[in-house]
Design brief:
Blueprint: E1 6-7, E2 12-13, E3 20-22, E4 27-28, E5 33-35, E6 43-45, E7 50-51, E8 56-58, E9 61-62, E10 67-68, E11 73-74, E12 79-80, E13 85-86, E14 91-92, E15 97-98, E16 102-106, E17 109-114, H1 117-141, H2 145-160, H3 174-184, H4 198-203
Parallel strand pairs: 1-4, 2-5, 3-6, 4-7, 5-8, 6-9, 7-10, 8-11, 9-12, 10-13, 11-14, 12-15, 13-16
Antiparallel strand pairs: 16-17
């Protein structure tokens, strides 16, 4: 599995009868199944590929920038060319080769039309967007429970103070830090640690 790629929850990737290679910035979404039913076969998924939820792929080759729609089924030996799009729910028969930059749809799938340059670029932006999601998920997964709790607290605090997620946090004055340090140890009691001065705490 390449850098920035993600295999989402519920997906099954099985290399029982051959290897499965997934390129860079590619996402295999929820409940996708990738298998190799033919002995000695393999599946090769290129870079910047989007495989939408519920798709089923068997011993396939998917070239860079292609998108496989939700619930599509690709039979053994199918090859999908660069920047091509297999529409949602389509059934692509075994051994079919889909040329680069084409839209295929139906059951059995057939060539509907060629994609425009803008449409092919859009497929790439979708892969990039999902790659960013995978990266954020990996960062969150690496955090401790305490760090996640602090992130949640900070997010809520920003909402309470009408701040955006990227707005800089206000700086705390040194005297406030000192006050907090002096009163924190005695703040568990209701009548303690409230509006105390440094001198009072020194006496205590």
């Amino acid at each position: 599995v390449g850098e920035l790629s993600g295999v989402y929850y519920g997906a099954v990737v099985r290399g029982d009868k051959g290897p499965v290679k997934i390129g860079r910035n590619t996402n295999v979404q929820d409940n996708v199944t990738i298998v190799n039913s033919v002995s000695g076969s393999g599946s090769t998924i290129g870079d910047d590929v989007v495989i939408a939820p519920g798709a089923h792929l068997d011993s396939v080759t998917i070239e860079d920038g292609a998108m496989i729609g939700m619930g599509a089924r690709l039979g053994a030996g199918v090859k999908v060319g660069k920047d091509a799009f297999v529409d949602a729910g389509s059934v692509v028969p075994e051994g079919t080769e889909i040329p680069a930059g084409q839209l295929w749809t139906g059951s059995p799938a057939r060539h509907l039309r060629d994609l425009s340059v803008d449409e092919m670029a859009y497929l790439r932006t979708q892969a990039l967007s999902y790659g960013q999601v995978s990266s954020r998920h990996a960062d969150q997964h690496a955090k401790t429970l305490e760090e996640l709790d602090y992130d949640n607290y900070l997010r809520d605090w920003r909402e309470w103070n009408y701040m955006g997620p990227e707005d800089p946090l206000p700086k705390v004055a040194p005297e406030m830090v000192e006050y907090y340090t002096l009163t924190r140890a005695q703040s568990m009691a209701v009548d303690q640690g409230i509006f105390r001065t440094k001198e009072y705490n020194d006496d205590v």
